[in-house]
Amino acid sequence: MGWDVNRALGPWHPPPLALAVHDRDMVQWFFQNGAEPDARCDLDLTPLSVAVEVGQFEGVKLMMGESRRIRSGQLLHHAVRREAPNCDQVVEYIIEHGADVDEVMYQHDIQSYLQQEAFGLGTPLHEAAKLGKLDVIELLGRFSANPLIEDSLGMTPIQAAEAMNHSDACGLLQKLAERAKPPEVQFTATMKQLYRPDV
């Protein structure tokens, strides 16, 4: 029996390819030995999720070339959390590959959503608002991100920015909100009605 290179390291820890995202040669070695960038743990977290958040951009591109599922791993949310100066470039790269700017985190993975909803799951715009990333907010706005979508705690990105005292982000989000339309359906409200009707 051989070692399963795509086996998760733990319930919330993706397969070992995630440990190699800083080393392009090691990433290539993993691929040569059958690793998949979309392989996940119990939570919808993949090696590619880790790469877009903390890995080298060239490594991200290499792994994206092997990826089969843009919706796996909550890539855009993790890209927004990126601390490197090229965060906006990685965010735009992920969007250009088909990521939905208005998707609530774990929207297409109900098990993960229900496990994490108490932490305030929202859209990539919520992530940028919490972090006060003005350049990313502007970028998401250019791709028509909706600032009126609520997170799993019922907060909009503006409220999320206010909670973190990011006044500049609040001002920018308010400008986006002036030309936005409320979504026809609030995913998070629907989930609460279905799974938490007594809360």
Describe the 3D structure:
Keywords: ANK repeat, Repeat. ANK repeats lie at residues 123-152. InterPro entries: Ankyrin_rpt (IPR002110), Ankyrin_rpt-contain_sf (IPR036770). This protein folds into two domains: 1-99, Alpha Horseshoe (Serine Threonine Protein Phosphatase 5, Tetratricopeptide repeat); 103-199, Ankyrin repeat-containing domain (Serine Threonine Protein Phosphatase 5, Tetratricopeptide repeat). Helix 1 packs parallel to helix 3 (57-66) and helix 8 packs parallel to helix 10. The chain has helices at 24-32, 47-54, 57-66, 75-80, 87-96, 110-116, 124-131, 134-142, 157-163, 167-178, 187-195. By secondary structure, the chain is an all-alpha fold.
Task: Annotate the secondary structure layout.
Elements: H1 24-32, H2 47-54, H3 57-66, H4 75-80, H5 87-96, H6 110-116, H7 124-131, H8 134-142, H9 157-163, H10 167-178, H11 187-195
ANK repeats: 123-152
Pfam family, one: Ank_2
Keywords: ANK repeat, Repeat
Average of per-residue pLDDT values: 95
For the record, what is the CATH homologous superfamily label of the largest domain? Ankyrin repeat-containing domain
Radius of gyration: 17 Å
Instruction: Characterize the biggest β-sheet.
Output: none
Order of helices and strands: HHHHHHHHHHH
Which architecture of the largest domain does the CATH hierarchy give at level 2?
Answer: Alpha Horseshoe
Question: What structural class do helix, strand and pairing data support?
Answer: mainly alpha
Q: What is the molecular shape? A: globular
Question: Helical proportion?
Answer: 40-55%
Strand content: under 5%
CATH class of the largest domain: Mainly Alpha
Number-wise, the strands total 0
Number of helical stretches of at least 4 residues? 11
